[in-house]
Design goal:
By secondary structure, the protein is mostly helical. It is built from eleven helices and no strands. The longest helix has 28 residues.
């Protein structure tokens, strides 16, 4: 006599069972590209933020290469200046700037550290300009520890840049977008003449960092402008002393 197979028990749902409802099932194509944006404006915003992310990471790598002497100083200066300019240019867009918020917030949001890039962006000058090295000094034919041999046109340009900056302060041009470019020209032209740490040279860098932390249209208060004038007059006198 043939034995019959055990009868299969009917499905008995438990309180935690889930029966898929075909009407509610989403139709997902796993090969379809996921779009982060739906409008051209959103795409532009995400592209700009991605560029900023790339600049920060690239700048951090560049700083490491410079510290290890893996890149010539002139190449480092050119690349660093370009990255800093690109960073500032992208953030001039109000929409990008608003979403970016500030550097620390952006780093936290996207989980990046990049401490060397953070410091370079804070100073907003290549290390070769903010802190000229002995190598640069040698390329400028240093005559002594405090003097350099520079062309008359280089000395004239540095002198004119000091005067132009001081004149801007006297004309009450106190916004960041007025003063920061002028002060950057001062330190760059000064470095073409001397790399010595003359009196109040550090004040130039200090004020550059301070101005860089301001918003473009933000202005110095009256007492700040007075202190800046005093410091720059002292730096100008210190610079002229290296020429004697």
């Amino acid at each position: 006599m043939a034995t019959s197979s055990p009868r299969q028990l009917a499905y008995a749902p438990t309180p935690y069972s889930y029966l898929p409802n075909p009407a509610l099932t989403a139709n997902i194509n796993l090969d379809e590209e996921v779009k982060l944006s739906t409008t051209a404006a959103e795409r532009d915003l995400y592209d700009s933020l991605a560029e900023i992310y790339s600049i920060i990471v690239t700048l951090d790598g560049l700083e490491k290469a410079y510290i290890r002497d893996s890149i010539p100083e002139n190449e480092y200066t050119e690349l660093c200046s370009r990255l800093l300019n690109q960073y500032k240019s992208i953030l001039k867009d109000e929409t990008v700037s608003r979403d970016f918020d500030h550097l620390e917030a952006f780093k936290s949001k996207w989980n990046i550290e990049c401490p060397r890039a953070t410091e370079r962006l804070r100073v907003n000058l290549p290390a070769t300009i903010a802190e000229p090295s002995a190598t640069q000094a040698g390329s400028l034919n240093i005559a002594s520890q405090t003097k350099v041999s520079a062309t008359g046109s280089q000395i004239l340009l540095a002198t004119e840049n000091f005067i132009t900056f001081l004149d801007a302060l006297r004309l009450n041009m106190l916004s960041k977008d007025s003063l920061h470019p002028l002060l950057s020209e001062v330190i760059q032209s000064v470095n073409q003449v001397t790399t010595s740490d003359f009196e109040n040279r550090a004040k130039i860098i200090s004020w550059l960092i301070r101005l860089n932390g301001m918003k473009a249209t933000e202005e110095l208060a009256e007492d700040e402008a007075r202190q800046l004038t005093f410091d720059m007059e002292g730096a100008y006198a210190g610079f002229k002393a290296t020429l004697n």
